């Protein structure tokens, strides 16, 4: 059974150190990371905030990056595709021999929060051991992809459940609403964007596994937890805490 694992790596030890120093007030996340056929890693980097031009300039000037391409640009949000050619050898070497991928990574003030998908626990152990030789990496959480005991009833994560219950009890779903997403963001110490995403995914998981059970829809994403929900966390307090015994 495949496993999902979450790790933290100090910002100063990982990639984009110089770029992040110029990204004050921005939310920076790696959405997908693949190994380039000619060596190096190719991540898709999404940045949300106001001063996006300075971030783009910093990417262009980063000595570890060989190529930068702007894929999407909206008001307050951009998606870049970059090709790392240096300082990612350890991560590339850890990913190459195993069936695994880094599906998302979010930069906090002190830590990078990484989420990886692994074919099995053996692949996870191999990746972790390889990374420990290069980084001060710590495993914060691991759970089986489709195990209700670790993934939550109806595949709702503990974080999604807590937020949904708080929203219900606080009157978020009433007309008119008694609380707002801003109120929930302050209560859970996350961003308004993270609240919206967590509520949406929680609803999606509930519907898929109750009213829509048995209905096939390949266009709907898997609804699992994403680091979008923790993009505003500055330290490690926002990581999932449902690690199985």
Automatic annotation (TrEMBL):
<feature type="domain" description="Bacterioopsin transcriptional activator GAF and HTH associated">
    <location>
        <begin position="6"/>
        <end position="139"/>
    </location>
</feature>
<feature type="compositionally biased region" description="Basic and acidic residues">
    <location>
        <begin position="227"/>
        <end position="239"/>
    </location>
</feature>
<dbReference type="InterPro" id="IPR031803">
    <property type="entry name" value="BAT_GAF/HTH-assoc"/>
</dbReference>
<keyword id="KW-0804">Transcription</keyword>
<keyword id="KW-0805">Transcription regulation</keyword>
<dbReference type="Pfam" id="PF15915">
    <property type="entry name" value="BAT"/>
</dbReference>
<feature type="domain" description="HTH bat-type">
    <location>
        <begin position="157"/>
        <end position="207"/>
    </location>
</feature>
<dbReference type="Pfam" id="PF04967">
    <property type="entry name" value="HTH_10"/>
</dbReference>
<protein>
    <recommendedName>
        <fullName>DNA-binding protein</fullName>
    </recommendedName>
</protein>
<feature type="region of interest" description="Disordered">
    <location>
        <begin position="216"/>
        <end position="245"/>
    </location>
</feature>
<dbReference type="InterPro" id="IPR007050">
    <property type="entry name" value="HTH_bacterioopsin"/>
</dbReference>
